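Final report, Chapter 2: Outcomes

The project's central promise was a pipeline that accepts a single protein chain and returns its three-dimensional structure in a standardized token representation, suitable for archiving and comparison. That pipeline is now operational. To close this chapter, we reproduce one record exactly as it appears in the project archive, with the input sequence first and the structure output second.
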Amino acid sequence: FQTFPLGDSAGNEITSGCGYPAIITEASIAGDDSFLPHVAEGIEASAHNEFTCTSSNANGGQDLVQPQSAFIHAIGLSALDYATMASDGTALIWSPRSNITLYGDTAQVTTAAALGVQIALGTDWMPTGSMNMLRELHCADTFNSTYLNGYFSDRDLWMMATTNAANVTATDDVIGVLAVGKVADISIF
């Protein structure tokens, strides 16, 4: 997990070039089962530039778009960017409540899904995100119904919160499905 994969915790934003203080290297995540960086958190050009510099080794960037990566947020991306993620097996962790509260928009999840990006649901953090997954799931369901014309089925949303989330965090060996040998909590209302 890395909130500042570009080493930019001081808040300096750049709109072009990869002159960030310390971009995590592709080599440093090569042995990780799962890598979860916050990338393209926002709607401005600087957010998209974060993806540019974490999706290619060009111009001083690092290609962190890897099969074990799951980009948290990825709001400021284009269809081509999501296609890059899909082709390299990089997932998206979607946090609609926090995204909408902070930026008035969220990741283009229908585009990402149509292109084959695996999507997991996450709560982000308490100040702007949901206090638990049930509330985040409700937010995603309401957003899906209201703004996405029901693009995602109930099963799709359930998978984002369970199996997909376990897959992208490399915890699917112990959680993510109701099965013998797995850790599971279930409540039925």
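Archive annotation: The chain has a mean pLDDT of 94.
This record, like all others produced under the grant, will remain available to the consortium after the project formally closes.
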